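I have been asked to look over a protein record a colleague put together. Alongside the sequence sits a line of tokens, each denoting a local backbone shape. Please read both lines and tell me whether the tokens look consistent with the sequence. I do not need a full report, just your reasoning and any doubts. I have pasted the whole thing underneath without changing anything.
>
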Amino acid sequence: MEELSSASIQALTLLFSGNVEIWRIIGVSFTVSVKAILIATVPAVIIAFLLSYYVFPGRRLLIALFNTALAIPAVVVGLTLYILLSRAGPLGDLHLLFTQQAMIIGQIILSFPILVAMSHASLQASDRRAWETAITLGAHPLRAALTVLREVRFGLIAAIIAAFGRIIAEVGSSMMVGGNILNYTRNIPTAIALETSKGSFAQGIALGMVLLFLALLLNLSLTWFQGKGEVNS
């Protein structure tokens, strides 16, 4: 107990003293995860819209596949990317293995099913008459789609928050394709895993505190936006 208390005090000291290594690790985490979300969101929302408002062959199969992909473990995504990006793999010539770009690709793959599934659920729950009315009045399909998306904006924001929370805390994919390189690909989860394995708990606790605070903030935001969506529905 005394050791835990001492490590916790050291962790707080590391955080609030502006420790360069700690804040670089935090910076890598946010840089990679924010880029992944920004890249994944627009195509995911477009696919969710098409699945909600258009009928085409294979539509139900696609919905089932995206829902199934929600359960894919991060380590499986990491292993698949490692095989593809390794020197012997089909994409080895791109030299992406052990880079932030590889980590971003992994996090895009992990966040995409969440964005599609939650956006699709929000769109399915929306009033379809907004789309039909806009089209009947001669609105361009893009303008009509933007009108619908505005109606479900709180649900879409909730999807983005949930996806971001998923990827910023994942360790399997980032460890395998990022390589946990200090000041380059070492993010919060991989640093926690490394420091814990070395028996150095202060840095791990400090980074764990950041993740816990972020988890609380994201969950509060998610609850608020879901509540706003229910009020506006």
